[in-house]
Amino acid sequence: MGRKRRLAWLLVGHGAVGLATAGAFLPLLPTVPFLLVAAWAYARGNPELRDRMRNDPRFGRAVRDWQDRGAIPFKAKLMAIAGMASGFGILALSSPGFAVLGGVGLVLVAVGVYVVSRPTPSATDRSPGPED
């Protein structure tokens, strides 16, 4: 891989980690999705950083569960659906019109179905981490 391509992947990874860090402190900005993007980018630009993320004591388990099985914890599913529902409610209160509400509603239902359809990791099928 060329130096410029590797640098681009590292830039994407570092940017995603920065957004994830902000999300750890800001209530409306998610953390784990940005960490998943960072792990994806690091796998292409610096596999050592990807492994470091997978073994992180705080977020490593969520990254491993997603990368290994596409699993989303129940609490995260609940928060995602609640966030989408509240966002749709706020949009509906702003009266954007039926076409906008219908389009956004269809997208949110599709995303919600996808999130709910992902497996939920159980204590017995969790991938081992540094704390295990």
Layout of strands and helices, then pairs:
Blueprint: H1 3-25, H2 32-45, H3 47-54, H4 60-69, H5 74-93, H6 98-117
Helix pairs in contact: 1-2, 2-3, 2-4, 5-6
Describe this entry's structure for a reader:
The chain is globular. The longest helix has 23 residues, at 3-25. 72% of the residues lie in helices and 0% in strands. It is mostly helical and 132 residues long. The model has no long low-confidence stretch (mean pLDDT 89). The chain folds into two domains: 1-70; 72-126, no CATH class. The chain is built from six helices and no strands.
In short:
The chain is mainly α and 132 residues long. It is built from six helices and no strands. The radius of gyration is 17 Å and the shape is globular.
Residue ranges: pLDDT <50 for 5 or more in a row? none
Strand content: under 5%
- Approximately how much helix is present in the residues? over 70%
* Major sheet description: none
Total domain count = 2
Give the termini distance in whole angstroms. Answer: 34 Å
Let me know the average pLDDT: 89
